[in-house]
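ESCALATION

Customer reports they have been waiting on this structure for their group meeting. Please prioritize. Original submission:
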Amino acid sequence: MNSTDFLGHNYTYIYGYSRGLNGVNIRRDVLITRIICGFLGLVAVAVLLHRMYDLGAAYIRHVSCLGATPRAQTFWSVEERGWWPKIKRHVLYAPLFTRRHHREFQLSSAVNMGTLPSRLQTTLLAIYLLSQVAYCTLLDYDVNEKRALIAELRGRSGNLAVLNMVPLFIFAGRNNILIWLLGVSFDTYNLFHRWLGRIVAVETVVHVIAWFINASDEVSLSDAFFRIRTTPFFAWGAVGTVAMILLISHSPSPIRHAFYETFLHLHQLFALTALVGVYIHARIDVLPQRYWACLAMALWAFERSLRWIRRFYLNFHRGKMTTVLIRAMPGEACRVTFHLPRRVHIKPGSHVYAFFPTVSWWMSHPFSVAWVDPESCVTPPAHPADMIQSDLERYGSILNRSRSEKQGSTGMYQRELLDKHQTSVSLVVAARSGMTRKLYNKALTCPKGILRTVGYIEGPYSSSECPMGSYGTAILFSGGAGITHHMLYVRDLLLRADDGYVATQRIYLIWAIRHTDCLNWVREWMDQILRLPNRRQILTIMLFVSKPRHRYEIKSPSDTVQMFPGRCRPDVVLREALPNRIGATIVSVCGPGAFADDVRSAARMHMDQGIAIDFVEESFTW
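Update from on-call: job pushed to the front of the queue and completed.
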């Protein structure tokens, strides 16, 4: 048999079933490839159609409820279709079993076994996993030659492994266009990425074992190892296989969580090594799978390049770069503010990846954006004239101040407007372990607990596009540092409600914390929210302090800002809030896994009662 290596050299090899396409059922491989691509495309189309329907319904609800009285929104407060609430409760929002979904299985404080997928996620994963098993076992058992049967398994498993690398790399990217297109969160894609990685690794091992069986039968086991050492085709295949095995061996949840930064560096190195090894392996023998490997490599390179472009765009502008101010706060947390050199629009519910080179080199960690200044970078003014008027007023005050100080007004005005065209992004980073603990300790040792250092952000990213303004009632549950996910939502909804741009007429912000020290994390921002127009008519804040130091700490400032001792019980909160709802209701949660599971369970409990409730959870699992 003749073949060509990746340098274009022709050579001949004599092995019948351990190299080449003898015994490989190419026609069936092509058919299976098309079936897999069709299945993935069908799922994507189904999700896209569902998303288009949801967005269309949300838009109609949004427009019809603008300026509507609470009574006029009654139509949207109940589900007209009796079967849809059951689907939401038992399929779309259901955990795998009864309650547990994002609560982690922890054998100890250092050993984390991960979380459970939802019922819908498990169904999709099971279908795909079983289909892969079926494809690998769908062989021509009537063939009389055992080596031909093994060769067919070798070709099938190798083809599936390379094919699955394409969605594997797509799901791993932060700049995954499917997040925006399908409205599926990055957290869900990350779950599919982990399981696809396991499938690819197993199929790679099956591919190699099948090759070893035939190679050993043709000559000997020692000859098979000799061919790996001396033949580029087998050598590069071995490189890819070893990298795959290393990927799967260091990726179990306990190792991943205990040594995350080390894991991430090694994971990226092994992934690139495996991809290069597979590509050259397929390229040497001009195998058709080289196109899949090439596509995966192109997707990886494009996504990485896009990340760097985003970083440079956000953090460097006209000779200036991002500056970072880190303030150690009570309750073992840091308030981190990035002063960007340019003006950036950031949507509510966004998150960014933060870099602190002086603390953790080039590692990045995701954090929800807690606050953005100026407010127009999140909520543009209803009328452009408002911005012009504020600029004129600002210019007048600057001009008067400059006259009194006998200074030139032009330069000062330009400097003021320059600040106006910059954006400040603030995060709250709770000190746990690793980078977050180092950051907090470093800020704590600085004078007044304030650290100025080098830092950058990448983003902003949105886990999913949620049309929050189309709901008449928003019930937002936050646990600990999860309050950061909802702060901008509250400010944006209040500002746009005052301008008549949203249907929202009732907002409940529920925050569960351990100590009152945590209130300092967002006190300044909360004071700004409490001064917004129509806040008392729209916003109700409930603070639950599970471990107060003494009973005098728990004091409700007003009817709309209430404090309670003890743990938050989401079922009780919803039971009291839902009878007073206006229009459709959205329940959103961001916080520890156990708390999020309690909120999910409480929301699902009310869906069978015909109440129009949608549920959204913001989480970062890894």
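Sent to customer with the following note: The chain has three domains: 17-68+111-310, 320-462, 468-618.
Escalation resolved.
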